[in-house]
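Q: Give me the 3D complex with zinc ion.
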Amino acid sequence: MGENTGRRLLDRVLSGVPSGENPLTHVRDLPERPAVSAPWPDWVPDGVRASFARCGVRRPWAHQVEAAGHAHAGRHVVVATGTASGKSLAYQLPVAVALTADPRATALYLAPTKALTADQLRAAVALDLPGARPAGYDGDTPMSERDWVRAHARWVFTNPDMLHRGVLPAHGRWAGFLRRLTYVVVDECHGYRGVFGSHVALLLRRLRRVARRYGADPVFVLASATVSDPAASASRLSGVDCVAVTADGSPRGGRTVALWEPPLLAELSGENGAPVRRSAGAETARILADLVVEGARTLAFVRSRRGAELTALGARRALSEVDGVLAGRVAAYRAGFLPEDRRALEAAFACGELLGVASTNALELGVDIAGLDAVVMAGYPGTLASFWQQAGRAGRAGDGALVVFVARDDPLDTYLVHHPAAVLDKPVEATVIDPTNPYVLAPQLACAAAELPLTPDCLAGFGGVHAEAVVTGLVADGALRKRPTGWFWTGRDRPHAGVDIRGSGGEQVAVVEADSGRMLGTVNPGSACATVHPGAVYLHQGASYVVDELDLERGLALVHEEDPEWTTSPREVVDIAVLSVAERRRAGSSGSVCLGEVAVTAQVVGYLRRLPSGEVLDQVPLDLPERTLETRAVWYTVDEGLLRAAGLPPARVPGALHAAEHAAIGLLPLFATCDRWDIGGVSTALHPDTGAATVFVHDGHPGGAGFADRGFAAFVPWLTATRDAIAACECPSGCPSCVQSPKCGNGNEPLDKPGAVAVLAALLDALDSGGDLA
Ligand SMILES: [Zn+2]
Ligand SMILES: [Zn+2]
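A: Here is the predicted complex, encoded as structure tokens.
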């Protein structure tokens, strides 16, 4: 298609924009990157080279050789390069050489998703290394096969959940495998963040401890998207010091990146009469159709499964007016497809039979689709790592490609399309984990003690003083008993089954289809009132259900299949109390910024029904119990002097703080790898614990997941971005793109958009002149 394909495709898309609209906020041409290959290292025997050659690798890229060389030399390594840069070879090479050289050596591969694990297992099988016996071991592995895997497999592909529940508690049965464990591969390690990431960090420490018991000290090889300071992130996750390899030697075509903001619509109005933008999904469907007409192989990323279906449908409808045959070349792809359906769709897309695919982020991980002509993103995918991973699907060497980022109705998206440098010139954010969170550490140490008694020595590896404090608590609770040789688990049953490493612990609420008795999934008890309250629309694998009954005592939500045209969002009343202050900084003489522990008491009091256009149908009241979450929060106080400086009379203070709170929650994901559903906020014109007007932003998980801590550390850039995002939105008095929140407990009232800008500006001024944050 030629070098300026990206620009040509963009011109085509722009020619379809109605006159008078200018959705384009920025265009940037990213240059082509040439390939840097390297010869096979001497330590790779001919047989292994031949295996890779059979799979199409004739000559490796320089970064693959560099990373593999570190691992082969016994150094823990993280390879952090772009999408489709061949990170797999960096670990396959040392593992293949080790398994070939020593007929008893073993290796363990871990990935966050089953789909990726299956892909990587297929690749290992294809290498056809004599005696390597690669095998999968996850929840789907039949019991009859599991014995064989434990006894004979030498290259085991699994996930953290199975390592936690299946391998470590029964390590005696894995003794042969663990004794010869040479490599541990942790793929897509940037995906381990928040509470899940903190659990996985401790799980890897448990694995090392158990392996050492059998005399093994495996080398860790981690693979990551390009992130800032990958060595530090990988070392924090794995608990071992890692060398980083970041110079990407794989070739990449030039790309044109366009930032796109859908126009405000005059004819519709949303909550409290706020203006509504044309939806990112509808805009994406139109762009997708235009690109398919041009014959461009295009992948559109849409946040929800239903959104992906609707986008594909919208594009097909637009195309059927032009050419019925083209309409048949667009499809939707989502999680929940059977593996064979998924592979058939991928094959049709790879060979060009399909031209346009609308997908959820399910496709984001690992699946080998790259070299496309265009990628369209309907909404920011949450992190820069995901943004570049999705954008990385576009572009072949020697050929240009187009990437369009379409902003959704959301303050973070608004900020990004108006601040291109924040997307295009920033290093990808470090993943946030907190392995010292006592709510994570306590169950993890209980599991560790049940695997092998804990000794003072091993507590050092689990967080030192933090671990000691948690162990003291476990002893006081009677879960552990101190003996001369260490701390022992006292229970008859192992604690593993009760520890949910992906959630916040506690009994899960089961979501069950009433007619069939089929269990669709589970939700955290903490979020059940908000996600599966009566009347809630619940999506599962692309199908839509409506909740009939929520029984919190039995841990059960009963649903029936139904696909109403609206979505639901809960309305909550929230109260917050300060339990302790860990850190405090002054903002001049009239404000302060604090980090500490809080108790958040919330009650879901109703829900809103909303059409896909954003239009609100009605609000339905609910009667559900209160629940309390103890967690960490960052908060700031502003006293009367500062409010006067901002020009805010008392009557405007609640609306100004509330609007500033919403936007700050929307922008924190730019600084901490969370999404806005991982965090919450409370604002009040007078808080009893602080004695001043206060805005709180808190973690959504018990004990915190590190997000509030990140907010405190990056307070000035965070609130500066918040102020700028609000100021950049051209709506008159607040809309979802700036200060309205889809999860507001108060129905987005009161909100004072200019007041929020004024109070944030005054606070930042005070910090700049008199504060110690400057
Ligand atoms: Zn707005
Ligand atoms: Zn609110």
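A quick observation: Residues 120 and 157 are 8 Å apart (CA to CA).
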